[in-house]
Fold these 2 entries.
Entry 1:
Amino acid sequence: MKPYKQVDEKDLNNIAEFIDRDRLLWAKEVNEEYSHDELSAGQYYPDIVARVVSTEEVAKLMRYASQNNIAITPRGAGTGLVGASVAIEHGIMLDTTLMNHFLELDEQNLTLTLEPGVLLMELADYVEKRGYFYPPDPGEKSATIGGNISTNAGGMRAVKFGVTRDYIRGLEIVLADGTVMTVGGKAVKNSSGYDLKDVIIGSEGTLAVITKAILKLLPLPQKTVSLLVPFPTLAQAIGAVPPIIKSKAIPTAIEFMEREVIIDAEEYLGRKFPDNQADAYLLLKFDGNTLEEIASYYDGVAQICLEQGAADILIADTEERAEAIWKARGAFLEAIKSSTTMMDEVDVVVPRSMVNDFVEYIHDLQKEIGVRIKCFGHAGDGNLHAYILKDQLNDEQWQKVLKATMEKMYTKARSLKGNVSGEHGIGYAKKEYLKESMPDKAIAIMQGIKQVFDPLNILNPHKVCQD
Amino acid sequence: MAKLVVHQEKITDAKALAALCPFGAMQEKDGKITITAGCRMCRICVKKGPKGAVEYVEDKKVPAIDKTKWRGIAVYVDHVDGAVHPVTYELLGKAKELAAKIHQPVYALFIGSNIEHAAEELLHYGADKVYVCDKPELEYFKIEAYTSVFEEFINKVKPSAILVGATSVGRQLAPRTAARFNTGLTADCTILDIKENTDLVQIRPAFGGNIMAEILTPNNRPQMATVRYKVMDAPKWIDSVSGQIEKLEIAEEKLKANIEVLGITQKPKEKTIDAADVIVVAGRGVKKRQDLKLIEDLAKSLGGELASTRPLVEAGWVDPKRQIGLSGRTVRPKLIITCGVSGSVQFVAGMNHAETIIAINSDPKAAIFKTANYAITADIYDIIPELIQKIKTGGTIL
Amino acid sequence: MKILVCIKQVPGTNKVEVDEKTGVLKRNGADSKMNPYDLYALETGVRLKEKYGGTVSVITMGPPQAKAVLYEAFSMGADEGALITDRKFGGADVLATSRTLSQGIKRFGDFDIILCGLQTTDGDTAQVGPEVAEQLKIPSVCNVQRIEKVEKDNIIVDMDMPQDIERIKIYFPCLLTVQKDIYQPRLPSYLKQKETSKKDIDVFTFSDMEDQDENKYGLNGSPTHVQRIFPPVSDKVQQHWQGTTEELAVKIYETLKEKKFIA
């Protein structure tokens, strides 16, 4: 394969023909933040950053890149954890954050059309003010919707409502050669050939650039109540999840957390958590139209928790109370990060009934390898977030320990019939593990799809399934 | 006892009438209205309901008091060991203005131990008479003793209105004194005026500042109000004084208290950004770690705290506890100055409730300027040293 | 030790508006909740009970539905509750409220420590606590930020003052108002909620009050009168300044001075 062309001053001038110069960052103007994402260790500076504002600009830029063999990396808010939006081949970075407009709220079809740069927090604010609800709820609220669609993010409410994919009706995309195309639409049903929209969702910017999305909305539940359930051990807490699910009660979220991580969050936020009687907690959330209605849902769940050894069930029924818990939950990642020197993550998803096996395995692994691993996650959908901490290890030791730990964890996840990533994606960092976890044939099909969409391989090279 | 009487026959639409009540205190059942204990006697139903449907009945007129027996505007002198809190001067200024309208004197009430020497200063700020109660028993603020002195003062001087600073002391002392005289007290007034009949017009925010209320104390004296620091303007110091200082005596047994002050400790210097009134934020415009000192100096010169954005914390320059934003702390200071901060959404979400936002950034299109009250296009390396210099030579921290 | 906590039911949100034409208060939604500041007082009471023994009682004044906050307090560890309610108490200002509350407290029992939150989110005055203490003729300390210990006939606390912290011994019976964040309030317990959902509460009306002078309660007993309510004038400014370093520094300096951040 011939090497990509580096962007030079001439390219800059050419691109400035169709994108305002002051929305192009060139050479020294490229900020440090564009060289990495939230977690990736390496630094790769793009040659140029284009802060696009329209589909037309994206199309022209893609055409220019494909004609000149320049690598192009799409990027939202840069909050990813696996390096999917890092410009490994330098080249052009396509920053979508200025494409952050709400285009149409269609109240008859309950859809919202928007641009990819809208942030999750802006989206939630926009729809909730109008009495609607967009259920996917990943922890990182300053991520863009475009990024979320590209990883098929899940979030806290997946137990009841499913993941991002379930709320995408249609997409406007720009292909590598600059072709603009709409896949899916406002129609509810679609049985018309291969669903290209679903191929794009979760493709991490390797197949096309998303320039518009049509989201499906729900009516906003009037009330939510969170339950914080203290358990003597984490095993008991997680053990309560399958019977809760079996009872047909449908909480919107079931999270598990350990004392240690809560203490990190208390330290990080400078705020006390509302309870400290137990070593492990389940956090459940219910929604409904009145507090009484919600109470009728969780009565049975409360009984199950007590039978499984819970000390009590604590009720967070006001905004202040819920905030005291969820603010801590939301800060876990940053809190763990600030408790060590460096860290890396594993975002495996296993069947719900296997969560306990996996968590136990992690506990033992810490002793076996001699590294601290902190863990929390979505007990309700089997998606675990485990963070391996560097602490006082030197770089060489760290690389060794990290590799060994990851290998073991992914091997274990595979044996439990789990997947490499629940919601963070594969990007650059998890490619190897994806390969190990899948039949060669499956990887070959993915590579074939990539080849069809992007024959010149200029779009986000070296990601997901590519060598 | 004043009460509301419902005349069911005059009600045209009972549901609509019930909906008028902002406190949900009217219940409609089978087209009939009953008023519950939720009623706050706001009388909106009388004014806005169908004519005559709800009647306000006052069965006994309370006799009007003689307001001419109460004269002058008094100010409680807030101080620590004789060092007068500046809110006192601000109140003296306001009192002077109000007193001038009704041609009455301004009094100051000064309570403490070994404070007599400081009383003179109050005359320079316009007090016509300073009453000083200087006793060893009054060394520390003990509410029972201080309330007794206040009582003595009111009985002796009979001021028409009393203004108290809404400080930690004033917020305890004023209500106890008001309750002792069975009179009205309005907290945290932002505007004060006075009518010819000496009624004090008190305007204050309610419901967290979402509404303003105008309040009168029409048939009780003294009228009492508290005012927060930095709301009113302090008057100029006058060189020549015409007022006098008078000792206020009190019987010793009235100074007994069921409180003992066991000790005083200084507050720890190390403050968190969560509680700070003034915050100066370093953003990515700060190029080198050493340059943080510049931002810190500005914070110090304003008596504030240093904070930062996420990139600086990630670079290890600043303690994570000082990070503002969605993934850090949420702050609500009176003043925030951002220096070289671009204004990412996740940062702004952590500080956009600050009262005054000054943003300095060399990029005139920086996103932070959309949130700022004062957007200043400038290089922080030029302007901050200049500003620190101005503050240092020009004035002191309040 | 007998502890009493005064609590209040407040609107679920502060987002009220005034209808500019009619001057009527518009509330968004009929939700109500326990005054957030009272949660800290209640937590303080329950912690004192847990450490030193005794009982925690709660009292509230309001419409009949305000009893909801008493049951909420039970699920957070309070032992008994009383509701003061009567149409005759409507329209009470700070003085009339503190008088009614203190009359209700006298009827309810004898207490060693009365705890109040710093202020409420609707009235926002922070005055009812000290006025209740005055009505009951007992000592009071406001802004308590830490409880050191309880002794036989007194409690030792830290009072937050502008420049320093005063360590104070206060003899029983006494009233304390506690600061936000003295302790992180606990969440209501499901088990306690089930256990106490049918608990009897005391209800006191005008006829239960020792002082039977109707003119001391409600609107008649209130010396302050609200003349009118109106929306605040927004003072939100947005200015963009450009100029020389010297000019800009002067402008910032003058603004800081005008806003009283520097003298």
Entry 2:
Amino acid sequence: MTTPIVDMRNIKKHFGHVIALNGVSFDVRAGECHCLLGDNGAGKSTFIKTMSGVFRPSEGEMRVEGKPVIFESPRDAMTAGIATVYQDLAMIPLMSVSRNFWMGREPEKGIWPLRTLDLAKADAITMTEMRKMGINLRGPDQAVGTLSGGERQTVAIARAVYFGAKVLILDEPTSALGVRQTANVLGTIDRVRKQGIGVVFITHNVRHAMAVGDRFTVLNRGQTLGTALRGEVDAPGLQDMMAGGQELADLEGSLGGTI
Amino acid sequence: MTDTTSGAAGDERIKDVSPLRRMLIRPELGGICGTILVFILFGLIAGDSGMFAAEGVMNWTVVSAQFMVIAVGACLLMISGEFDLSTGSMIGFSGVLMAILSVQLGWPLWLAILATFAFCMAIGAVNGWLVIRTGLPSFIVTLASLYILRGLTIWGSVYFTRQTIISGVSDRAEGDWLGPVFGGKILTGLFQWMGDAGWIATFTRGNRAGQPVVDGIPMLVVWAIVLVIFGHWLLTRTKFGNWVFASGGDAQAARYVGVPVNRVKILMFMFSAFCACVFSMCQVMEFGSAAADRGLLKEFEAIICVVIGGALLTGGYGSVIGAALGAVIFGVVQQGLFFANAESSLFRVFLGMILLIAVIMNTYIRRIITGER
């Protein structure tokens, strides 16, 4: 088996008296979609923030392509090829798609101190990349605010892929979307995975996870309950693991198995 | 999953946008319309009062340029998502500081000016640092510096000179190389020539007979133009400008992609202080004195110019050109009412109404940009 691109072992994170993560192990390999499932408060957000360099783990080991690393900031994680697309903070609505796309990594031309943005290049590449992802823009200066939620996620994913992400962390990309937009985002995940990028797909929707996932890890009360391969587990099984017990099973019975 | 990469053709769900609507979402539009309106209005009611003769033009140009200088600083800061309410106090403070250093302590003028700039920009940096570190709204932090700086200005002035006006700066400016950069005039030869050619009015008697009534363009106007061009270039054409928009649009999202938001904001606070210093240096050199009460209410006037110019109070959107046009509107209205012999207190009524209309317009425009949701 190939070395995982990112390997997190026995990660613990404490905030004062609160133990947010209590031994989480998770890895992601090139070209797979590894779903991290968990109910609200299971520690998903804390975990991905640890993975993307926002938090430093209290204990545990992180390896990127086999080498131990410590991320001081999100920038370090980005340099290592770990890109994160946050649910609501992915884009700045008032700015154009092109300016959002290049934000933080703007192409420049000219000689200092008269270095300017290479707007022509930025716009051309933005349009090409958007078309690849199936988004038709009126123009590169269209504001992100005019895009739908799914399209914004896709722009953010396209941006991460273009800038050479090896691992893409998607924080609940589908939770606020409609059916059709969800299908688009899941399609994008599939396309990205086929390019050899490792995708970490965080969700609490089992059906979305089952649609694209290669492996599934369930997080409950700050701990991983194990990882299952595609085909080894079915949706109800994952649902039970996430809920961590019987209450949901009872409820499900009364609701006729529709949750 | 369907593959959607094929579609280069237009999406049937995206309506074509009319050029009018496209223009409407440019931040400068309100400023352009307002400027045209104001000129037509005063052309009608004050056209024969000398407002559009050389002297009158210079009169409102200088007033507009004053607003412009501080509006550029306020504009960039507001786009980066912060306010500076200490601009007015900073104007008083920097003038008095410079006068104390040069007149009372006997420093050479150029050294006093440079030291004042350095010190005031350091105060700007402290403002920014406090906003970043405490996470408090910049409104509160700079409101505190508004009072602190004004208090220090009056105290310092009284402590050194027993009065609130420090004169004698003009004597110190004799032969100084840096003084004329703020107090001088350019193109004096051109204006003399235009006076000789009879294009602009000249004095007919007295010891200045034969000289044109407008003898050059004050450096304040030059500073205003240079700052507007620089600000516009910085904002729209550079990487840093993109970071300014990003910091104000959504600081957290910007941080996640590696934009140094804190650095951007602190630099913008420093730039705002820089602009206030340019304003006060020009004013001190013109009057030859510094006064502790200079710059009262300037912070609000700067913010009004910026808002009339189409910037959003919440940050992330705006234009330096718009702010400059806002300053022109402000200056022309203020001086125009004087030329039209209107009751000067009505100026405030007018201003309040323009401000209200501008903010309502901006809210509407933002809804258009963000897709009317």
